[in-house]
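Bit of a strange request maybe. I'm writing a small parser for structure token strings and I need a real example to test against, not something I typed by hand. Could someone generate the tokens for this chain?
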Amino acid sequence: MGRIRKGQFLSDIELTVKPSHYALKFTSEQVQAAAAHRSRAPFKTAWAHMDALRPERLIAQAQRDSFRFRALGDTEAGARAVDALAALVESALDEAPDYRASLADTLIMAQCHEMLRDHPVFSADYQVAWRDRFAERIDALDTSIHDLPLIDALWLAALKTGAGVLLENEPLFETGTALYRETIDQHVHPEGYIPRAVETSAAQGLQNQVLCVQALILIAEIARCAGVDLWSYRQRGVSVVTAALYPLYYYFYPEKWQWGEKEWKRDIGLQQEVIEPEVAQAIFREHGGFLEMLNHHDRSHKAVRLILDEIRPVYDLHGGGFTTLTHAIPPRRGLFG
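Reply from user aminoacidic:
Good idea to test on real output. This should exercise your parser:
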């Protein structure tokens, strides 16, 4: 891919992409809404959860402290986050559990950088030096998207989309969004499942579907905040919403999951591998950030709201962070406030 330099981005795409450099995946209006409704559900418990959170991993600490600075103006937290980013951009890539986690961690770094751009200790020269090291990290993680399993390819695409905004690099942004469109075009079945994700063991298939959807929705949200509408992209009657809605039924009825290995059992014939309810629910609790984003985009899906009622407040490390705070819909006021 070669070295990525600032200034490559705003050329032919200047009229359609408008990087705000605010927070990568949400807008100032969304944070203002969470602050304005701080004493009301669902924001009240989400603020309390964030205040109580004491993450062990440095990347999670950076995410929390960056958000505290962006949302609350907490300069001490922001200074801690700047120090954490300095350490993270120099850290070894093999510190993450696997390749996908390295991609997801690096995307968090990009979001933290955007939230910290106007922190007083994060000077212009400091930011330029940090972005140079970040660009080297992207180079190290880059590979041919079409040589990867789809789940890894989509997370690489999400990282490239976010890094394209951060670094103002047009080719990088377009590479990420191109795989988004290709996935909708070719890899999402009209019923919503993604064959290259679900055709494995049962629980792994459900998790893979959720993780693919998570990456797609992150791309759509990053693009939305840069002024590009991918949510409306549709082919063959299929959109990202088609893929996002598919796994929701199995939160409630995991035993109905049709994918996974089958084997012959003595006396009872063909036996389908079954996902236990607590396993299915754990997948959504860990990776539920996409549901807040989906609900923010379109509130017409009852199943989304039912699941959110059970899993809020949502904190999804790799799926957007404090997504109840950034994407929940403010409650409507009654006649008397």
